[in-house]
Write a structure and sequence with these properties.
single chain, 9 helices, 5 strands
Length: about 200
């Protein structure tokens, strides 16, 4: 493993930046592995909200729970102070970096964008989405259900527009989106069908 990567061990507390809704996890087992000729680790992690997961460091760029808390601090106060000052309604409709990062490949952004269609405005899924978007353990402590539902509808409109632009970019570059579409949720496939519908 390169010197810049962490060698994880049982007992380490981590967060998965692409799955913030899982919360903080505790590593229960760590073993060496090789992926595409590069050393990595296969970790078993028990996340406070996501349950027991097996992840590979070749794909999941975990960070320590302490580093995640430090990154959330602002120069004017703690991350809680900053969250109090920010309007969570705006955070709710912002697409995560994994879907918009211009330094990621179009394939990676497409997969991350399609993955966002796993959320719905029904019950627990709405709360899981709001928690993932805002970082709040209990989004209902700041917003009521009606506000969350309204924000989710706006989020879906932003997501649909972004997906349309991304699909057009993929087509211009000759990227076949069929594989990603087959792995997508039914809601994501319906969104792709709406985009591909002749006008």
């Amino acid at each position: 493993m390169p010197l810049t990567e962490i060698e994880w061990k049982a007992g380490d507390r981590v967060i998965h930046p692409q799955k913030p809704e899982w919360g903080v996890g505790s590593i229960t087992a760590a073993q060496g592995a090789v992926q595409d000729g590069r050393r990595c680790q296969r970790l078993t992690v028990r996340f406070e909200n996501g349950g027991l997961k097996t992840v590979s460091t070749a794909f999941a760029k975990l960070s320590t729970a302490a580093a995640g808390a430090k990154a959330a601090e602002s120069s004017t106060g703690t991350w809680l102070d900053e969250m109090e000052n920010n309007d969570p309604r705006e955070t709710l409709i912002t697409l995560p970096e994994s879907a918009t990062d211009p330094f990621s490949s179009n394939n990676a952004r497409l997969a991350a964008t399609l993955d966002l269609y796993r959320f719905s405005d029904d019950g627990a899924s709405l709360l899981t989405w709001a928690s993932a978007q805002t970082g709040l353990t209990d989004p209902l402590s700041r917003l009521n259900r009606h506000e969350l539902e309204a924000a989710f509808q706006r989020f879906r409109m932003v997501l649909d527009r972004h997906l349309g632009q991304l699909v057009n970019q993929c087509r211009r570059e000759g990227i076949n989106i069929d594989d990603a579409a087959q792995r997508a949720t039914p809601d994501a496939r319906r969104a792709l069908q709406r985009i591909n519908r002749p006008r």
